[in-house]
C-alpha cells in the first residue's frame, strides 16, 4: 500500500493503552458491586415486583463488564504483539538487506 508506514512502537504503545482499559472496566464493576442495593431496601412491594429484575440486570451488567475487561486485555495483547511483529520484521529485513549489500561488495 503506497504511503503506508507502520510505526511498531506506536502500535505496541496502542496495545498497551487498550489493554490498560480493562482496568477501567474492572473498576466500574467493583463500584457497581459495592453500590448494590440489598433486598431489604426495596421494601415488601419492591421485593415482590422489581427486585428480581434489578438483580438480573445487575448480574448481566457485571458479566458484560467482565467480558469487556477480557476483550480489552486480549485486544491489547494482540495489538502489542502486532507491533512487536512489525519491529522484528523490520529488523530482519534490514539485516537481510545488509547481508545482500555486503555480499554484493557494498561497504556495510
Report what the structure shows:
- α1 packs antiparallel against α3.
- With 108 residues, the chain is mainly alpha-helical.
- It is built from 3 helices and no strands.
| Weakly predicted, low-confidence segments | none
Main beta-sheet annotation: none
Tally the helices.
Answer: 3
Number of domains: 1
Distance between the termini: 29 Å
Q: Can you count the beta strands?
A: 0
Shape: rod-shaped
Q: pLDDT average, as an integer?
A: 92
Helix content: over 70%
* Fraction in beta strands: under 5%
Protein name: Excreted virulence factor EspC (Type VII ESX diderm)
InterPro entries: ESAT-6-like_sf
Organism: Saccharopolyspora kobensis
In a nutshell, what does this entry contain?
The protein has 108 residues and is an all-alpha fold. It has three helices and no strands. This is Excreted virulence factor EspC (Type VII ESX diderm).
Amino acid at each position: 500500500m503506497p504511503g503506508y508506514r507502520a510505526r511498531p512502537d506506536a502500535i505496541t504503545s496502542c496495545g498497551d493503552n487498550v489493554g490498560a482499559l480493562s482496568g477501567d472496566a474492572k473498576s466500574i464493576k467493583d463500584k457497581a458491586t459495592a453500590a448494590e442495593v440489598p433486598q431489604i431496601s426495596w421494601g415488601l412491594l419492591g421485593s415482590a415486583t422489581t427486585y428480581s429484575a434489578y438483580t438480573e440486570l445487575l448480574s448481566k451488567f457485571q458479566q458484560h463488564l467482565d467480558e469487556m475487561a477480557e476483550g480489552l486485555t486480549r485486544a491489547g495483547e494482540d495489538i502489542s504483539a502486532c507491533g512487536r511483529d512489525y519491529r522484528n520484521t523490520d529488523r530482519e529485513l534490514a539485516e537481510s538487506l545488509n547481508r545482500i549489500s555486503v555480499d554484493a561488495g557494498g561497504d556495510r
